[in-house]
Design goal:
about 550 residues; alpha/beta; Rossmann fold; eight-stranded mixed sheet; 23 helices; APP-BP1; ThiF_NAD_FAD-bd; NEDD8 activating enzyme activity; NEDD8-activating enzyme E1 regulatory subunit
Length: about 550
């Protein structure tokens, strides 16, 4: 017999992740369809970390059969798999991890799919490309996915080295999960809050009308607002604006303490620096408001842009203020006083939400769209996080390869022998080696002992060709770090180390979950990892 209000079996199963991204994020995961190109160790580990939290479906495209080399690196294959389809065996074993996830496989190459049935790519919400894929194929894949706004993750894992490049077209994030969304409106208190301050804190200097207990349990928000009123009366109606004045204001607060151990006054003093800032629209939010997509709405505009325009109009009508989130931090206070204060903030947040919902409805009507197309819950989430939204417009892989990977980034890091830019260059050279038309079998550099030295020189040549193409000046001294990176890459002979692949799977899956749930801020756009020094660096190429 189930207990009313008790968590369901599903909620128990996914309890920890629901605390991270909530029911909305979980729903997004469960409707996702992930494509993995090549069931390499890194690819399998990435899928494992997506199957366990409950993605809806996954498909593996791979025409390889399982070999002895696969058994040495891929945890999801065993002796009974040798000679069988790598895509099929990996799919079967991954599905065992979570019966709620549907898995399928295609014994083919991505090249054939792109030629014969490119429309099939529209089925997938995210694509992961792993293994030794030629540059031309990667660019064709990117050209097919980028216009669809389908994220492409290109993962390279060779020896102790790993890189992941994500190609995102437009990626708005509402729930960025900042450390705090508290807005106390200390500099712009609304009437209901002012009335409560006058009622409860107006007597905090009068020992005849307020008991010691009452004084020690005044919510610190009310203490701050009452003290701020007193400060403004002697400072031309202006709040403390610099560090010196804020310290002076803290002294004012200390002077109002009746006892040295009044915790609520200590909370008020601690809140001065983080909360005494003039109201302003943060840069990322302002950038969204100034974007032409925010002003030039159409029937095809996404919910994000319509709500953004509504909040922009709300802000313009309310002296540049964003909707009140309504959150209130814990504080020393009597329960009844805290609840009353909390309800005042919540009521104001609801009023602001209602105003934004009305603007959204008006905008939808103007666009000739059903006025209730956007659910109020979605508008509410946006209102709560309006000051923390972020818009990422990434570069396509074609932009990086055909135009420029932002040469100044490479040039500035080249002189640092410890920079991981050397591994980026080494992996680009590795890809160029695989892509060489003469390398018909796609043999990795260093895979054959007899060609190690020659392969090393080929990779060095590919690096210098890339630097020349980018008009980057270099010298033998500047390339010492790159030569060391190439040495490590060639030494691996194209092989994967399971511990590095496992870590790679964790990194890549984490970023994919951010993108699918549209929560937290994903990397933009390349991460490089060196397992020897255990370091990562993120670049925006």
């Amino acid at each position: 017999m189930s207990v009313p209000g008790a968590p369901t079996a599903k909620e128990k199963k996914y309890d920890r992740q629901l605390r991270l991204w909530g029911a909305g994020g979980q729903e997004a995961l469960e409707t996702a369809h992930i494509l993995l190109i090549n069931a390499t160790a890194a690819g399998s580990e990435t899928l494992k970390n997506l199957v366990l939290p409950g993605i809806g479906r996954f498909t593996i495209i791979d025409n390889a059969v399982v070999t002895d080399e696969d058994l040495g690196t891929n945890f999801f294959l065993d002796d009974s798999s040798i000679g069988l389809s790598r895509a099929q065996k990996t799919c079967e074993l991954l599905c065992e991890l979570n019966p709620e996830v549907q898995g399928s496989f295609v014994n083919d190459t991505i090249e054939n799919i792109l030629k014969s049935n490119p429309e099939k790519l529209k089925e997938y919400t995210t694509v992961i490309a792993t293994g030794d894929i030629p540059t031309a194929t990667l660019l064709s894949l990117d050209a097919a996915l980028y216009p669809l706004s389908t994220p492409l993750f290109v993962v390279k894992c060779v020896g102790f080295t790993m890189s992941c490049r994500v190609a995102l077209s437009e990626h708005p994030i509402v729930e960025t999960h900042p450390a705090s969304t508290v807005d106390l409106r200390l500099f712009n208190p609304f009437p209901e809050l002012i009335a409560l301050v006058d009622e409860k804190a107006g007597l905090m200097d009068d020992k005849e009308k307020m008991t010691t207990h009452e004084h020690g349990h005044l919510p610190y928000v009310l203490i701050l607002l009452q003290a701020l009123k007193e400060w403004k009366s002697t400072h031309d109606n202006a709040p403390p604006s610099n560090y010196s004045q804020k310290n002076e204001f803290k002294s004012l607060l200390r002077s109002k303490m009746w006892n040295a151990d009044e915790e609520n006054f200590e909370e008020a003093i601690a809140a001065v620096l983080p909360h005494f800032n003039p109201p302003s629209i943060p840069g990322d939010t302002r950038a969204v408001f100034q974007d032409k997509k925010c002003d030039e709405l159409s029937k095809e505009s996404s919910h994000f842009w319509i709500i953004a325009q509504a909040i922009k109009q709300f802000s313009e009508k309310n002296d540049g203020l964003l909707p009140l989130p309504g959150a209130l931090p814990d504080m020393k206070a009597e329960s009844k006083d805290y609840i009353r204060l909390q309800n005042i903030y919540k009521a104001k947040a609801r009023a602001d939400l209602a105003a934004v919902v009305q603007i959204v409805s008006d905008l939808l009507t103007e666009l000739g769209v059903r006025a209730d197309k956007i659910p109020e819950s979605e508008v509410e989430t946006f209102c709560k996080h309006a000051g923390y939204i972020k818009l990422i417009r990434g570069r396509s892989l074609n932009d990086e390869y055909e135009k420029s990977p932002k040469a100044q980034i490479i040039s500035s890091d080249l002189s640092d022998p410890t920079s991981l830019i050397h591994y980026y260059l080494g992996l680009r050279a590795y890809e160029a080696y695989i892509s060489d038309e003469k390398n018909t079998r796609r043999i990795a550099p260093g895979a054959e002992d007899s060609t190690v030295d020659a392969d090393t020189e080929k990779l060095k040549k590919h690096v210098t060709e890339l630097l020349d193409k980018l008009s980057i000046t270099y010298s033998p001294e500047l390339l010492e770090g790159t030569e060391k990176a190439i040495g490590e890459i060639v030494r691996a002979g194209g092989g994967e180390l399971h511990n590095i692949s496992s870590l790679t799977g964790g990194i890549v899956a984490q970023e994919i979950i951010k993108v699918i749930t549209r929560q937290y801020i994903p990397m933009n756009n390349t991460v490089v990892f060196d397992g020897i020094s255990s370091r990562t660096q993120v670049y925006q190429f």
